[in-house]
Amino acid sequence: MRKERKFSLWFVCALLSAFTLVAYHIPFFRYVASNLESGLNAVLIVSGLVVLMLAANYFFYYLLLYAGRIVGRCIVVATLICDAVSLYFINTYDVFLDITMMGNVFNTQYSEASGFFSFSAVLYVVFLGILPSVLLFLPKIDFGSFKRFLANIGASLGIIIIIAFETMSNWPWVDRHGSPLGSLLMPWSYTVNSVRYKCAVRERNRQEIPLPDVTYLDDEKDVVVLVIGESARRDHFSLYGYPRETNPLLAKDDVKALVAESAATYTTAGVKAILDYAPTDKLYEILPNYIYRSGADVVWRTSNWGEAPLHIEKYFQVADLQKIYADSDPQFDGILVQGLKETILESGKNKVLIIIHTSTSHGPSYNKRYPSEFEKFTPVCTTVEMSKADKGELINSYDNSILYTDYILDQVIGQLKELPEWRSCMMYISDHGESLGEGGLYMHGVPIAISPREQLEIPFIVWTSDTSLKIKNMEVYKQYHVFHSVMNFLGARSEIYDETMNIFE
After folding, report:
1. CB 228 within 8 A of CB 435
2. How far apart are CA 30 and CA 422, in angstroms?
3. Cα(413)–Cα(416) distance, integer angstroms
4. Environment class of 233 (CB within 10 Å of its CB; exposed 0-12, middle 13-18, buried 19+)
5. Which is nearest to 389 in space by CA: 406, 416, 366, 358?
6. Are 351 and 490 within 8 A, CB to CB?
7. What is the per-residue pLDDT for 293?
8. Partners of 216 in the β-ladder
9. CB count, 10 Å around CB of 328?
């Protein structure tokens, strides 16, 4: 009887290690090559990384398969499929799978996530995930003795240590590029950064530190509508000189367009910066919680995510608003501004803060963020594979989303104008900017240290019913100005109020 052939575990692990290196790490080495000067040192860095990655992957696979057997194979399969999906996103959207990007992943709703996938994603998963996974289960594996296990683990670990110390002179270069390198390294990028993100979330969700109690200077009727934009970049607003007319309505509304910069390149951190009284790693009360605790009426309406924990009574998602405004299309952000006038009149309080968290310019499907009547710039991009899209079509669809933002803000201002007995203010500021192919980058989420200006330069638009109220002349406004400016307009004061961070004179 013919004996069934078995493959040695070392051979299977060596094959897996080589496959992982070649199949999933082209973006990694592309980044390495683009950030190295030619010469012998560059060769040493690249070769050192290759050997180190081969040894590390071998160590990981050998340990997992020997110790886990069938369970180990299942974990490897899951890893290969996740590697394939991650590679698709890296190649398609030119992103880094750092802690900020993993935050975006965990905070993305299914309806949003589905918009990122295409037929190319299926091909990635099938050929780079499922197919090698199937092949992993076909052969019989000779696991060998425990002595052989120790020898293989020891040898791979020894190689890792030797290479690490032999290339010690290149550690400063690795350290300098540590974040992007770690964000392109499979499977360490999404696993380690997922853990880091969850730890950060747990830290953020600790009990808020209360801010000093608020006193109000008067009992006048004051209302602020704070609109938080999504992925809006300043240089695509005609209010700031963009040659295309993307703000035809706001141009007639006597608004002030302020030059601003974001504190982050992803939603969670950008929104927190807008709502924080100062840059801090500590968990202090954010603006809506603080104002609500201080006796004002606070309303939050959202079609987005990534929000810090809210401790208010009136929190409305799109599904909640649809029950109230059945005639409004829940697909678009216009539903967020329905009935604002009535909401203010029904408040019962003289100090009102309404926060509207939009998703109007969220990619990659900009063309799905606005109704058809706002498709002014054509033709538009309809693919989610932004790197393969026509640049002009991509910009057309993005500009249409800005045009729709113009309409939404004009609707807010229009309703506030119908409340002459109220002193009212509309503030619009984006959570971050957006890349549209500049430097081969798309969307946002690039680490702040290397982020391009397109992801940092944001609009900050202000309108008030009080025409006598002037705005201070500052070279650049920050998201942290919002907290103190809202307090000022509502006549709220406390020990943490900072007049230098108030935009109003």
Report:
1. no
2. 58
3. 5
4. buried
5. 366
6. yes
7. 96
8. 492
9. 17
197, 235: one domain: no
Please indicate, yes or no, whether residues 336 and 376 belong to a single structural domain of this protein: yes
Judge whether 97 and 193 are in contact, CB under 8 Å.
yes
CA 85 centroid distance within chain:
18
> Do 381 and 272 have their domain in common?
yes
Q: Which DSSP string do the residues of 300-337 spell out, in sequence order? A: EEES---PPP---SEEEEHHHHHHH-TTS-TTSGGGGG
- Contacts (Cβ under 8 Å, ≥6 apart) of 116: 89, 93, 364, 384
Distance from C-alpha of 104 to C-alpha of 266, rounded to nearest angstrom: 7
- Residue 210 CA to residue 283 CA, distance in Å, equals 9
What's the pLDDT score for residue 112? 61
Q: Say if residues 374 and 404 touch (Cβ distance below 8 Å).
A: yes
Please list the residues that pair with 224 across neighbouring strands: 353, 425
Residue with tokens 């603006």: 287
Residue 1: inside a domain: no
DSSP letters, 436-485, are ESGGG-EES---GGG--GGGTEEEEEEEES-TT--B---SSEETTHHHHH
Number of domains in the chain: 2
Whether the link from the prior residue into 279 is cis, omega within 30° of 0, is no
254 phi and psi, to 5 degrees? 55, 50
Tokens for 333, please give them: 């952000």
**Which of 289, 439, 444 lies closest to 362 in space, CA to CA?**
444
The percentage of the chain sitting over the pLDDT mark of 70, rounded to a whole number, equals 94
Q: Give the tens place of pLDDT for each residue, 283-325.
A: 899 999 999 999 999 999 999 988 888 999 999 999 999 999 9
Q: Which of 185, 204, 223 is the last residue of a domain?
A: 204
Contacts of 83 (CB under 8 A, 6+ apart): 20, 23, 24, 128, 129, 186, 187
Helices marked H in 94-141 — which ranges? 99-106, 110-113, 119-125, 131-137
Rounded to whole angstroms, how far apart are CA atoms 256 and 449? 30
* pLDDT per position as a tens digit, 123-150: 999 999 999 888 888 788 888 899 999 9
CB atoms within 10 A of CB 397: 27
> How far apart (Å, rounded) are the C-alpha atoms in residues 48 and 476?
44
Give DSSP secondary structure letters for 251-307: GGTT-EEEEEE-S-SSHHHHHHHHH-SS--SS-BPPHHHHHHHTT-EEEEEES---P
| pTM for this entry | 0.70
Whether the ω angle into residue 187 lies within 30 degrees of 0, i.e. cis, is yes
Q: Reduce the DSSP state of residue 151 to 3 states and report it.
A: helix
Determine the residue type at 234. Answer: R
Find out whether 362 and 93 touch, Cβ atoms under 8 Å. Answer: no
Instruction: Identify the domain boundary among 175, 204, 233.
Output: 204
Residue 494 burial (CB count, 10 A): 14
Q: Is 72 exposed, middle or buried (0-12, 13-18, 19+ CB in 10 A)?
A: middle
24: containing domain: 6-204
CA distance 136 to 74: 10
CA distance 107 to 101: 10
